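Reviewer 2 asked us to include a model.

Predict the structure of this chain.
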Amino acid sequence: SSGETAWEKRYAYRAGRLVKSAQLGSDGKPEVISTYTHNEQGQVLIETAVDRDGNLVHSLEYRYDDQHNLVWKKFSSIQMGTVSSNRYVYNETGHLRRNEINEGPNFIEAIEYEYFPDYFLRIAYHYDPEGELIRKEIENYFGESVFLSSAEKQE
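Predicted model (structure tokens):
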């Protein structure tokens, strides 16, 4: 045994919208149950997850712009006592241009994207809070990394 837990997830939809999901334990019973609230466009606004006993595990909040792009996401973990958020900025063609990552009130990292549509690739430039380049990743349009280059800081 590798020590890994095999999780199975089940989903429930109503009128084409995800309304509930359950992460099942090895006994086949739900370990975590998530419920979802949507806006008029069918986008998720709130995800709330509870454990078997009904205790809040985590919540996610989402905000969208007038073009229906996700512009803000907040994750709150009750069990871990953490809050993180992402702010998303898009270019004029609707592609993600910048993702700003915060943990609590602290700015952690910014990721800026450059697109190469002829090759279905983008470059993700990761910057630390001081604006120094940490690493570059070449990703396909699914966000999967196909090449990683770490930046060496000059002393």
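The longest strand covers residues 106-116. The chain has a mean pLDDT of 90. We have added this to the supplementary material.
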